[in-house]
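Lay summary. Proteins are chains of building blocks that fold into shapes, and those shapes determine what they do. In this project we predict the shape from the chain. Here is one chain we studied, written as its sequence of building blocks.
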Amino acid sequence: MGFGIINIGKYWALKGVIMSNMELMNKDKLLKIFDYLNERLKENQLQLEITIYGGSIMTMVYDNRPATKDIDCVFGETNEKLLNNILDLTKFAFNLSEDWINEEIKEPLKVILKEDKETYKLYSNLKILKPKAKQLLAMKILAARPEPAKDFIDAYILCKDLDITTKAELLDVFEEFIPLTLLGERQRIFIKYLGEDLGYDWE
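And here is the predicted shape, written in a compact code that computers can read:
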């Protein structure tokens, strides 16, 4: 299946060689980007709330990734034209790719039954929110993408963080945020191999 932790580790080692630092954002670079965003917002007397998901969280909070290629996020209501100008400035200042901001997360969020968010970092003009670990895990299970996506290693880290040892516990977390009707064959296989890597039989 190629879901194993060792395989994913090898993938990241190889990817680190192939991709340049300019294309990836590690924890330090992400924090510098948010500092820069806050300063530009302050200059323009603009307040912004942003919720980050996916690789950005795993890079900054859980330290299990060397870097992320984009920031999965949703912006709160603000002056869109002014914000786009600030984002363009940020892209130029940090030599980021065209798709460094990824708002595609809006699509899977449509099926979320509820959001359980907390403040990750608070600046003078920028508030960064993130989903709590349980919601993040439920979203990783729903996505259940194979390599080279990082859903499997992320789910593994989150299960460890939440001390989840049984399939029942995992499904309870999933059902809290996502309808069980969306649990299909892809997710079943994902959960089976996740349990196996964690040392449990989740058939």
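What the prediction tells us: Residues 1-22 have pLDDT under 50 and may be disordered.
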